[in-house]
Every structure is written in C-alpha cells, then in structure tokens.
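Title: Comparing notes on inverse folding

I've been comparing how different people in this forum approach sequence design from structure. To keep things fair, I'm posting one structure and asking everyone to reply with a full sequence. Here's the target:
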C-alpha cells in the first residue's frame, strides 16, 4: 500500500514584472508552459494527492484567462481521481481586507480543490485512500508575521 503525492510551489502564474517589458507575454507563456508540465504529469500518473504550497499565482489579482486555465486543468485532475490541496503564499494571498480574497478561494469554490485559507491556524482535511484515513494539513502565508519568526511556532496541528 502506498500513497502518491505530487507537490509543487512557487509557480507564479500570470507575473506582472516590469523588467520583462516587451517580453512579458513570452515570460507569462513560459510560466504557464512549466505549470502545464505539472498538469500533464498529474493526468498521466494520477497521484492520490496534489499539494500546492503557495504562490500558484504571482499576484492576488490574476487576469481571467489564467484563472480559467487553472480551473479547467484542476477539473481534469480532480475528475481523474486526484485530490488537490492549496495554501496561499506571499504573492497570491490577500494582504488585507481591502485587497479582497485570494484567487485560490475562487478556485476552491468550484469544488475541484481545497484551500487552507487560515493564516494563523492549521486547517485539516481528511481523505480516504485505500481505506486509510489521511490528514492533510495546511496554513497560508501570514503577511503580518515578523520576517524572522517561525511560522509554525505555537501552532497545533489537528489530527
């Protein structure tokens, strides 16, 4: 009995980086093409679980085409039997109420992925894989935490 996990982070889809200037669309395509390899891997090898550990997007307000592409890809992965779990990072997590919510909330609303949105408490989801209860835990990036602090200090992980 084994459990297969596909883990990715820092994909930074839909970057808004001024230093790319005239090549910005080329760089956006590069980021997407790299993530498309992750998608193709997930579809081919059908891992039990896919973990996205922050910064799926490069910003809290990605354009609609990248959002749509992700939702379509996650639908295919989900329908292929893989459970998807996400946390936000320092780029795709809302820094304040005025910034609204993370785009990951919108993706989670589709039902194709679960988003651990809390920045100060570990959230837990239980999934059954081959009759084994697996607890997936996550906590999103906290913009208010001190730079030199341990993000897990004092946090209790629910089981």
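Reply #1:
Here's my take.
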């Amino acid at each position: 009995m084994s459990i297969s996990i596909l883990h990715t982070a820092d994909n930074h889809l839909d970057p808004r980086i001024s230093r790319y200037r005239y090549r910005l669309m080329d760089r956006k395509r590069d980021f997407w093409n790299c993530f498309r390899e992750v998608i193709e891997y997930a579809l081919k090898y059908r891992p039990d679980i896919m973990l996205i550990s922050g910064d799926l997007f490069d910003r809290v307000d990605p354009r609609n085409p990248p959002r749509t592409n992700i939702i379509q890809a996650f639908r295919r992965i989900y329908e292929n039997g893989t459970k998807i779990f996400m946390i936000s990072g320092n780029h795709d997590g809302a820094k304040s109420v005025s910034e609204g919510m993370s785009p990951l909330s919108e993706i989670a609303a589709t039902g194709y992925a679960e988003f651990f949105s809390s920045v100060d408490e570990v959230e837990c989801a239980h999934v059954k894989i081959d009759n084994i209860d697996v607890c997936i835990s996550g906590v999103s990036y906290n913009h208010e935490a001190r730079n030199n602090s341990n993000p897990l200090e004092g946090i209790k992980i629910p089981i």
